[in-house]
Design brief:
Layout lengths: L24 H45 L11
Amino acid sequence: MVHHHDNSPDPKRDEGVRRTFLRTPAGLALCLFLAIGGVLLWLDHQAHILGVLPLFLPLLICLGMHFFMHRGHGGGHHEQ
């Protein structure tokens, strides 16, 4: 028995597959624009950002912990 694997692109097979926004040209352009803007803001306002960082650091830590620690809860569906 011989198995033949066709690796050619099949438009019918990819019809239901949607690309995420970040994998589109517009998404990549947005990421690039935000990265360049972030670097420019950092270079121009570094002293201001570092001066305010101690005030916002606890808030950022709490938000980060909340975001990353709730990933294991099954999307909010609790079993009883």
